[in-house]
Amino acid sequence: MLIGEYFHNLDTKGRVSIPSKFRDDLGGTFVLSKGVNDCLCAYSKEEWESFKEELLQLRGADARMLRRFFFSGATECEIDTQGRVVIPPLYREYAGLGREVVIVGVSNCMEIWDKAAWNKYMNNPALESAEIENAMERLGL
Amino acid sequence: MLIGEYFHNLDTKGRVSIPSKFRDDLGGTFVLSKGVNDCLCAYSKEEWESFKEELLQLRGADARMLRRFFFSGATECEIDTQGRVVIPPLYREYAGLGREVVIVGVSNCMEIWDKAAWNKYMNNPALESAEIENAMERLGL
DNA sequence: AAGGCTATGCTTATCGGTGAATATTTTCAT
DNA sequence: ATGAAAATATTCACCGATAAGCATAGCCTT
To answer: Which residues of A touch B (CB under 8 A)?
Structure first.
């Protein structure tokens, strides 16, 4: 299961180490796609297939838009022998990645954020501790 | 059932022994997450799985944020052959753990507190027995 | 063909995680 | 109370993950 928050650095060639705990779940090659909220989203091949199926079952104008967004915005990546992947320039740019990035596990996918963008996102008032406690109560934790 | 209060020490590598009475309930691997009052909160796999299912079924704009919050804020831990777990640096820092920690059972989860923080919390006026009595009355206990 | 660019791989240093060994304390049964 | 066994604390040595810099090979351009 992909969970946790890891702070890594891009090297000068735009490569980043994948947290070792994520490598088994992602597999040697995975699908990198543009995510919602200016982040990148990496799916194992299996997870990508099921995401794809969901997308293909949708109907209507919105569905066409989403398919264009996600299918055109995805690429296959390979983890090298040292556990790194190259983040293609287009994707670095899309997510505004600087040198410092945050890699987070969100259960079925792994997201890559620029560190500053992630911190900003997580400071959202909807994540105040009162709200969190409400959510936990609703969800039975 | 997880109940009781135990005083343990982190070793120099940031590991702590899990009270032997908790090991059966937690299982060999459990999920450690950031708790609400500067403490860490450990759930058995079963507890966490059911929480995860609830979380994945949420829909709407906040759902994505809550998933990111809860999944990124948790990590899987494994109890070693000597009954210890590593508390990752990020988590030690979050809960302000020094060498002396307190491990408390709260029925469905196990919490880890810095000893000083725990003592301070337990000296809270809201925990005077008169206040406890009032709270119980309000809740019809 | 020469120079430079890019992608990829290799090397080293550092740090944190892991496992073993041993010491100390606590618990429990006798 | 006493001894045995279990639990916890402490230390050391080793292994693996990550960061950073350098080296090499292939390719493009001129």
So the answer is: 1-5, 21, 36-37, 104-108, 111, 121-122, 124, 126-127, 129, 132-133, 135-136, 139-141
Classify residue B83 as exposed, middle or buried by CB count within 10 Å of its CB (0-12, 13-18, 19+): middle
Tell which residue, A141, A110, A21, has the closest CA to residue B35.
A141
In angstroms, how far is D23 C1' from A83 CA?
20
- Does the pTM exceed 0.90? yes
The reply to whether the CB atom of residue B88 sits less than 7 A from any atom in nucleic acid chain C is yes
* Per-residue flag: A107 CB under 7 A of strand C: no
pLDDT, tens digit, 9 for 90 and up, residues A103-125: 999 999 999 999 999 999 999 99
pLDDT tens profile B53-98? 999 999 887 899 999 999 999 999 999 999 999 999 999 999 999 9
Mapped onto helix, strand or coil, the DSSP state of residue A120 is helix
**Cα gap B72→B95, rounded to integer Å:** 16
